[in-house]
Amino acid sequence: MTDKKNNWIFYLKLLYPYVKKDNGLFVFGLFAMLVTSALRLLDPLILAHIIDKSIPNQDLSDMFRYGIYFVCVVIVSGFLSYLQIILLSRLGIKIITQFKANVFSHLLKLPVEWFNKQPVGELIARVESDSERVKALFSELSIMLIGNFLFFIGIFIVLFIRESGITIFILPSMIVAIIAYSYLVKYLSKLYKKIRERYAEITAKITDYVQGMQVIQLLNQQGRIIKELAEASANKKKLETRTSFIEYGSQGVF
């Protein structure tokens, strides 16, 4: 079971029933993303035509015509980008709503003995943080990953059509970059999992301390509690800083 949970296909199978209920939003969102990626490829091609042909030939009519094409592409691309964000965000909200409802229904069926062994704060944190991660998967994260992937494939196709020799020459380095990026994503996913665990741990402690505040005050344990929370927060901050440094630092490479 542990091997399955470390496999992203396992999570996609779990989420598929939620996506299937609103597959219309998902399909239209992907279609808008595909068209947007294609339009992003037209921008440099139009500019290349203006620079390489219109300006050297001093053809003002051709320059203005392609300039209008460029403006139209930018406007349509912006509209479709907005549309895909709206569609996938709505999908994420619907999925997260149903997801939380199913989790809560499952919790209601569990025996009382199980809750006695689980910190209340940790349960709340896991439900909230993990649910928000699912929401991000179908909104910002999906737009970034799928959009960049489609754009990368489009660049490769256009480059191969225009300059096949250069494309073949840089193909090995592109393969190496893709493999390295896949390992980077796996490494970052482990770090984000640890961050969610630290967040759940801190939330669990705060909830338990609030519920037992009278006992803490009677035993004069305020200093120890503050120290524990400060250490837990510092560890979480270090992990988040490290993760952000790796994530944003790698953007300059990839």
What does this structure look like?
It is a single chain. By secondary structure, the protein is mainly α. It folds into 2 domains: 1-162, ABC transporter type 1, transmembrane domain (ABC transporter transmembrane region fold); 176-253. 91% of the residues lie in helices and 0% in strands. It contains 10 helices and no strands. The chain is elongated. The model has no long low-confidence stretch (mean pLDDT 80).
Secondary-structure topology with pairs:
Blueprint: H1 2-5, H2 8-21, H3 23-54, H4 60-108, H5 112-117, H6 120-137, H7 140-162, H8 164-211, H9 213-218, H10 222-251
Q: Which percent band covers the strand fraction? A: under 5%
* Helix/strand class: mainly alpha
Approximate helicity band: over 70%
Give the termini distance in whole angstroms: 33 Å
Shape: elongated
Largest sheet: none
Number of domains: 2
CATH topology of the largest domain: ABC transporter transmembrane region fold
CATH architectural group of the largest domain: Up-down Bundle
The whole-angstrom Rg is 25 Å
What is the chains' assembly state? single chain
Low-pLDDT windows of residues: none
Number of helices: 10
CATH class of the largest domain: Mainly Alpha
Mean pLDDT: 80
CATH superfamily of the largest domain: ABC transporter type 1, transmembrane domain
Number of strands: 0
Can you write the helix and strand succession as a string? Answer: HHHHHHHHHH
